[in-house]
């Protein structure tokens, strides 16, 4: 009974914070809720029977406390965004309870996609639909104690960061054992994905979300895993062109959702543009290695991703890529700062700082 009373008190404190739309304290928003894949997963796969895990050294080599399940040597993009918003690091859904939910929850799962079938080659993962169901579980826990009206007003002020789609290409369309490439051309597949994506984001809206940050896909043809498959060792124009219709569709989608969902505010993070800037102007950022992972095996250190207790490169601050698929902490921080306070060349119509400052009514 004492533990139950403590849990209720924690939830009450949680929503006292969430209800404080005037922004008392240093936080710019009450909380951030995160949905996505391995680019922003922080440990939700750790206890799953899955091959998509990063809870072992040298992952987390530069993270205070060591490996956590983040697919990085240190911070992910959303870790830096949380700090810029004045929030603590957001806990994973697999670990969050009571006061741990105080400033939000991360539902992201490595190998997850917009489509439920995506990532099946890694065994267990948490697809986007299930991530939304997990958010519903979080809401149910707190709504029971505080009431729907108070929860809706509070949730409407939170940031909802969503980054989905990369696995729908890497671990679905581009995989020879998946049928989708024989069923759809590139544009048709992008249409399929974004039609479902729109429905999924509308579900989150219907659960009370109003402030959305939607991350596009990066230059996937330039990651070490793809470079290793290219005889010339250069970016794959074919893969980059394959992904381009998805990003174009997402931009159109968020304009439509902003119009059709009353009170909603959507902002688009142009990850492809950010990555192009980082690769083209790498020297400006102190990055000298752009075509291979810091930790991995084979060509471009991208044929086999970072293995347990493998020795990574010592000069991680100079690398764009940590492993076969993911950026280093340095690049994650660069992109997070661009998303937070950058101009409309890379995030629009509002950057995250501007979005956070809006006083939305939960309609």
UniProtKB/TrEMBL annotation:
Give an example GO molecular function. hydrolase activity, acting on ester bonds
Q: Which GO terms describe its biological process?
A: lipid catabolic process
Q: Name one GO cellular component term.
A: extracellular region
As for subcellular location, the record says: Secreted
**What CDD domains does the record tag this protein with?**
SGNH_plant_lipase_like
- Give the signal peptide range: 1-23
Q: What is its main location?
A: secreted
Chain segments annotated as coiled-coil in the UniProt record: none
Keyword annotations:
Hydrolase, Lipid degradation, Lipid metabolism, Secreted, Signal
PANTHER family per record: GDSL-LIKE LIPASE/ACYLHYDROLASE-RELATED, OS05G0419800 PROTEIN
| Family under the similarity heading | Belongs to the 'GDSL' lipolytic enzyme family.
**Protein's recorded name:** Zinc finger protein
């Amino acid at each position: 009974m004492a533990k139950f009373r403590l849990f209720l008190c924690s939830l009450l404190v949680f929503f006292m914070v969430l209800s404080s739309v005037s922004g008392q304290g240093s936080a710019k928003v009450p909380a951030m809720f995160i949905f996505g894949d391995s680019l922003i997963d922080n440990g939700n796969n750790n206890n799953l029977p899955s091959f998509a895990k990063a809870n072992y050294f040298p992952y987390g080599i530069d993270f205070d406390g060591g490996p956590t399940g983040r697919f990085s040597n240190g911070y992910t993009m959303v870790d830096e965004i949380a700090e810029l918003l004045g929030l603590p690091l957001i806990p994973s859904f697999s670990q969050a309870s009571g006061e741990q939910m105080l400033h939000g929850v991360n539902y992201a799962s490595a190998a997850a996609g917009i489509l439920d079938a995506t990532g099946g080659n890694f065994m267990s993962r948490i697809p986007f639909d299930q991530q939304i169901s997990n958010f519903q579980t979080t809401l149910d826990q707190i709504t029971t104690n505080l009431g729907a009206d108070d929860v809706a007003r509070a949730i409407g002020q939170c940031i909802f960061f969503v980054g989905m789609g990369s696995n729908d290409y890497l671990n679905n369309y581009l995989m020879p054992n998946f049928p989708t490439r024989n069923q759809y051309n590139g544009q048709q597949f992008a249409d399929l994905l974004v039609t479902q994506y729109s429905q999924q984001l509308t579900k989150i809206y219907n659960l009370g979300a109003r402030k959305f940050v939607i991350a596009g896909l990066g230059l996937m043809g330039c990651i070490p895993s793809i470079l290793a498959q290219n005889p010339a060792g250069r970016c794959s124009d074919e893969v980059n062109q394959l992904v381009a219709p998805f990003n174009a569709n997402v931009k159109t989608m968020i304009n439509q959702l902003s119009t059709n969902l009353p009170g909603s505010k959507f902002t688009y993070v142009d990850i492809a543009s950010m990555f192009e800037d980082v690769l083209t102007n790498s020297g400006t950022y102190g990055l000298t290695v752009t075509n291979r992972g810091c930790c991995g095996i084979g060509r471009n250190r991208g044929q086999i991703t970072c293995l347990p207790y493998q020795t990574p490169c010592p000069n991680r601050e100079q690398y764009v890529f940590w492993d076969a698929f993911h950026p280093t902490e340095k690049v994650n921080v660069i992109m997070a700062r661009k998303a937070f306070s950058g101009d409309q060349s890379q995030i629009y119509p509002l950057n995250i700082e501007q979005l956070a400052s809006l006083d939305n009514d939960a309609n």
